[in-house]
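Note to self: user wants both folds in one dump. Writing first protein now.
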Amino acid sequence: MKITSSVSDIRKIVLNWKGRGLSVALVPTMGFFHGGHLALMRAAGSKVDRIVVSLFVNPAQFGPNEDLNRYPRDFERDAGLAEDEGVDCLFCPDARDMYPSGFQTWIRVEGLSQGLCGASRPEHFRGVATIVAKLLIIVQPDIAIFGQKDFQQLQVIRRMVSDLNIPVNVIAHPVVREPDGLAMSSRNIYLDTRERESALSLFQALRLAEEMVARGCRSGPEVVRAVRKHIQSYNKTKIDYVFLGDPKTLKQKQDIVGETLLALAVWVGKTRLIDNTLLNSNEQIKLQNINIR
């Protein structure tokens, strides 16, 4: 596996591959790899000839009181895990190269970034859209793979790629979970034992909503109330939002008709967690045996 922090080097590497007729995937990450990241790498390997993983803790997507300085980092561990997954190049740019002195150009995806996480993190998606656009321009992959856990981020990136005519196929990968259902996240490391138990309320609330829809409930407010009640029954939980709406436009819906996004953001102690599911009124959902107290 090649490792480089140089923009010119990664361009040369990819240009060489493409000159030989090889297809390329980009998996953008902020590092501290977990099973979700590794699943994205494996998915990339099943679709293309060469895999580039970017590892960059992007300062532009952190707010002034967020966890940029304490965000978990372990480069040696990450490099070993990426190599074990067959990654061909690990691209680890420096913030001074991504945002050099005098940097003034930002990308905003107006409508899709306004609600959900954008409401409490107003500059977050400006930072996400800008760094993803830069990575796509630098690497010029055939495909780019993103996890569906960050559903709003996925839709923002899809819209940006479409609006700016960036020639890349954006592929979504399903949420990857721990055996007990907790969505994998680098920030899970912040949770202590009791908080880890309370964090399960997110997944359980999603399953509760799926069960309600499978039994015929189509009332959005009724589902939202049940989800909120369940999460609030756990210690150390504080709801940022419970969103029910159209998965493409991210506009709220009152009735669960067709495919409907249920997305959550919840503070568990000092850790902000997100999760989501797609409810479908047209299908009988196969429920897992999850203990919902």
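First done. Writing the second protein, which came from a different request thread.
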Amino acid sequence: MHLELRNNSVVKFPGEASERVARSLLESGPATAAEVASRLGMSAAAVRRPLASLVTSGLVEATDEAPYGPRARRGRGRPSKVFSLTPEGRAACDQAYDDLALAALRFLAETQGREAVAEFAARRARSVVGSDGQSITAVVQRFDAAGFAAEASPLASGQHQLCQHHCPVIDAAREFPEFCDAETEAIAHALGRHVTRLATLAHGDGVCTALIGPPVHSSTSRSHGKVSA
């Protein structure tokens, strides 16, 4: 697989097995070699070479703990490394966002103003997330179907953490944060809950993360923008 990047360089996976491993990390999140092997129905030994190639190529990084999500309880012995995609690895997995669409958004902003971009982003977010009154599971499934590789984890006090490991419109969202704002607002209205955006791939974070509060019964706005670092 090849992907033309903005600097005209080309990201290339170091083999078919490496691409399979990388896509597993994209779709299911950071994992140890044993976990990747289990996902792909391979032996741990069979995935170690592609993982090493991906690390050498700068497409994957190995850390002592997952960069996000719940921390695994450590047992005895030497802890296993956790592998996750780098921004370059995520870009290599991405199906390049249509340059024509980005040019159209720029034209819309120049001729109609950023309000028009925000309106378009809101309409798109509603089409992805769906109508009001949905469950968190349903919203996650809709995001998955749209290519966001989403998952939700329960937290204390009825809260949930929503993670999206992939963003199909990341190039547009980098230039037009209205897409991230509209998505957060759409999630809040679909769930009827207060939603706080904590991190975004477009901002350079390792994952899009939002904190979903317990159910509320207010007609007022239920969403906030990204928390400042």
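Dump finished. Worth passing along: The longest strand covers residues 208-215.
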